Amino acid sequence: MKMQNLILYSDPEKCLGCSICEFVCSATKEKSMNPLLSRIRVVNLEPAGSIAFACVQCNDTPCVKVCPRKALRQNEKNGVISVDKEKCSGCGWCIEACPFGAIAFNPNDKKAMICDLCDGNPECVKYCPFKALTFSSIEEITHGRRKDVFVKLLKELASREV
Amino acid sequence: MLGYMGKILRVNLTDKKITEDLIDPKIARKFIGGRGLGINILFNELKSGIDPLGPENKLIIATGVLTGIPIPGSARLIVMAKSPLTGIWGEAPAGGSFGQELKSAGYDSLVVEGKAAKPVYIWVREGETEIRDASNLWGKFTRDAQRDIEKDVNEDRAVVGCIGPAGENLVKYASVMFDFNHAAGRSGMGAVMGSKNLKGVAVRGTQRPRFANEERLIELSLQELANKGERARRGPYWPDGLEKYGSNADFIYWQLSGRLPTQNFRKCTFPGYKNLIAETVSETILIRTNTCPYCTIPCNRVVQANHPYKVDPDYGGPEYETTAALGSFCMNDNLAALAKANELCNKYAMDTISTGVSIAFAMECYEKGLLTRKDTDGLDLSWGNPDVLLQIIEKIATRQGIGNLLAEGVRAAADKIGGGAEEFAMHVKGQEIPMHEGRGKKGHGFSYTISNRGACHLQMESDDLFEETPYPEIGIDETTKAARLYAGPEKVKLVNIVNNLFILYDCLPICRWTVYPCGGKRLETLSEIVGAATGWDVTMGELMKVGERVCNLERAFNNREGITRKDDVLPRRLMEEPLPEGPYKGETLSKDVLDKMLDCWYDFHEWDKETGIPTGKKLRELELEDAAEEMEKYGATKKGHKKQTIS
Q1: Closest residue of chain A to B223, computed from CA coordinates
Q2: B318: which of B166, B171, B308, B322 fits an S-S bond (Cβ 3.0–4.6 Å)?
Q3: How near does any CA of chain B get to the CA of A138, in Å?
């Protein structure tokens, strides 16, 4: 299923840690400029590098399994995990369970927040100035990677003296 | 208080007292923040004549209303104090995430007073402040000190600004390094920190100001972020703009147009330029680029080299001023040595411009026989020797031998050497001249003389730029005669407008690369953003007035320290020795022309032509009543005759 699904991917080679995605997410989803209200979060380990994290729609969904109120549900088609705000008590078990730290806690309404891929058109991707964020299938992403490696190899070979 | 945290943190290192000042909303509107807030504090609180390296001096790190707002260029802070290099108003802006983190920690600004008994650092977390021991950090390079502070506070997201050994050794142009590779370079702010035994400041927080109209602010910010087409200057000489090459994109243009500062301003083109241009940097030592928070322009360079010098990428890479100052200005065409010099300046933490100009000064003194091998500890200070260049930088930072002399800046060093050495000291008011050729860009050259922190390239943009980008709404149109060699009243008018505008940019604060004339944002957008954040009904005119107000108050501060019209002058070389080659061959910026321009400038500003002090009338018009009264009294004592009172 996941091979065809489009996923939100942050390329650490291109990400410069500018945090624009955090702002765009909190603005789109919460009408706020507070990065704590963003569903995508940046890890900035400058000068070594940086990357952005959001829900990766994994298959074993520990967050869904652990929720005592059955407030979380995974969409079978696109893998998006939705939070039923009526049921969510803000206990934070899903946040603890997520191995990626991809679930945020809304300090205002005290509920969990998970990336919903903006109904298939993520706003953060549109605004990423360095094209580090992409929204594509695993097949496309890995193909891009393979191509990059091959191009590097070709260059390396061309510069060799025989 | 909307748009601000509303509080200034004061830390007195002598008695370890930590206090908070509430910001008066009226003062905020009058000065906006950053540089304005700083001069207001320093003018009111510093007595004239104090020792810049004594406990009476105050160090300010200030943000402004735009800091933290998610638009390109907003990640900015200003460090201010009385400068030990010039003895007047000192100021150094820097990028990086420190400014917004300071705000998130609960404060718009930090004021450090007094002097600690032993080395300390300041840790501000979510409104709680501690003064911590830094004895084991003293002597460490900036990166190591920063990492150690992060470990010590056990918070890897703490943002640190710190000094290196140069600041500790009171090198007069020591810098403060933020976030590893963002430098608050000029005016010796690092030495002021060193004199206070303050190794660094670490901040961390998650607070944010309340805004008057957050919805509108979001709209405007998204608009600015989406506005990528206009995001960086793409002139005829910057085909790929700042994104690809950073500020060094300019280097080739100044070389080809015969205005590249070379060999201590004796030449204006550099034979070895091809090794230093941005394309070469990209093809050889550049490993990645970097950016400040919320910025779409990755102008920050990260370079690495292994041969012939090993260069550590953690300290970033040389931008334009560094490339020219430690490259062509010292006749050094070795790129790896240049990158190494940049690394050394950043790890010891000292200003690359002043370092380069000081070394070029020493090289010329050596050539002319004013310095001999005996004075230089056996070093051969011939032009362009990369090994020697690197050795001198370390000597300056550690104040060994010849380094101890050069660490005082070129003005003081020339005084000490004597024998006409001041002929080779390229400075205005004690601050070394940056890498723009005033003889081939008269506006830029003129702005060196009137800039309040001494020679400074940030009070005016290159004249060339205004030929293509008029802005009639603020008075920059064909009547300001932007032509680069024109030096009449209209040019002074242009410098005046741009000076006020650029001071305003330091008050907001916002990075010059992202605003007119370099980037897309114009004053209309900025005033709308300020309005949405604060709820003020603020106009472009009001904002420009802030720039003028701050300019006048800084000038009054300088007057109190003894600055008069005779200090508004260029080194003799730029006034009398013509450019030797290229399209602008024969050009100078002569004393006569400068004097006429100064007359004009004083007329515009209503400054007293004899003493160079802003008139009481002008200061009152700018709502600076206290300063008006003080300066009227002060001016009367300077006049040499009794001032007539107008009833």
Answers
A1: A127
A2: B322
A3: 26
Domain B228-432's class? mainly alpha
Task: Give pairs for B381-388: CB < 8 Å, separation 24+.
Answer: B383/B263, B383/B330, B383/B331, B384/B272, B384/B330, B384/B331, B384/B332, B384/B333, B385/B332, B386/B309, B386/B332, B386/B334, B386/B337, B387/B337
Selecting from B214, B298, B314 the residue whose C-beta is nearest the C-beta of A16 gives: B298
- For chain B, what percent of residues have pLDDT higher than 90? 85
pLDDT digits (tens, 9 = 90+) for B225-267: 987 645 555 555 565 677 888 889 889 999 999 999 999 999 9
- The CA angle B501-B505-B507, to the nearest 5 degrees, is 115
> What is the residue-wise DSSP string for A27-58?
HHHHS---GGG-SSEEEEETTTEEEEE-----
The H or E element spanning position B403 is helix B402-406
The predicted pLDDT at position A2 comes to 55
Tokens of B87: 């003895």
State the pLDDT at residue B237.
Answer: 57
pLDDT, residue B647, reads 39
Q: Nearest-CA distance from A126 to chain B in Å?
A: 9
Reading phi first (left if > 0) and then psi (alpha if -120 to 50, else beta), residue B426 is in beta
Q: Tell me the DSSP string of B585-621.
A: TT----HHHHHHHHHHHHHHHTB-TTT-PBPHHHHHH
Residue ranges of chain B assigned to CATH 1.10.569.10: 228-432
pLDDT of residue B513: 87
Nearest to B186 by CA among B408, B455, B425: B455
CATH class, range B442-507+539-639: mainly alpha
Q: Which amino acid is at B588?
A: T
Cβ of A18 and B302 within 8 Å?
no
Please list the ranges in chain B whose pLDDT falls under 70: 228-240, 639-647
Give the residue range(s) of CATH 1.10.599.10 domains in chain B. 442-507+539-639
Reported as half-sphere exposure (CB side, CA atoms, 13 A), residue B124 has a value of 34
Question: What is the 3-state composition of chain A as percent helix, strand, coil, each rounded to the nearest 5?
Answer: 35, 20, 45
Closest among B202, B147, B319, B348 to A47, alpha carbons compared:
B147
- Residue A66 sits at the chain B interface (C-beta within 8 Å): no
According to the model, what pLDDT value does residue B640 have?
Answer: 56
Sequence-distant (6+) residues with CB within 8 A of B598 are B449, B450, B565, B568
Domain boundaries, chain A: 6-158
Give start-end residues of each CATH 3.60.9.10 domain in chain B: 7-204
Q: Is it the case that residue A162 has pLDDT exceeding 90?
A: no
pLDDT of residue A1 exceeding 50: no
Q: Write down the pLDDT at residue A71.
A: 97
Residue B641: its pLDDT value, please? 47
> Chain A window 43-62: which residues touch B at a Cβ cutoff of 8 Å?
44-47
Eight-state DSSP code of residue A59: S
Contacts of residue A33 in chain B, CB cutoff 8 Å? 69-70, 208, 211, 214, 217-218, 221
How many of the other CB atoms lie within 10 Å of CB of B138? 16
Place of tokens 């699904």: A5
Interface test with B, best of A13, A14, A15, A18 (most B CBs within 10 A): A18
- Nearest-CA residue of chain B relative to A43? B157
Domain A6-158: CATH class, spelled out: alpha beta
pTM: 0.94
Backbone φ and ψ of A157, nearest 5°: -65, -40
Residue pair B111/B334 in contact (Cβ under 8 Å)? The answer is no
Q: Which CATH architecture has domain B7-204?
A: 4-Layer Sandwich (3.60)
Find the helix or strand (DSSP H, E) in which B158 lies: none
Select from A27, A32, A47 the Cβ nearest to the Cβ of B181: A47
| Partner-chain contact A33 B314, CB within 8 Å | no
Closest CA–CA distance from residue A77 to any residue of chain B (Å): 31
The amino acid at residue B609 is K
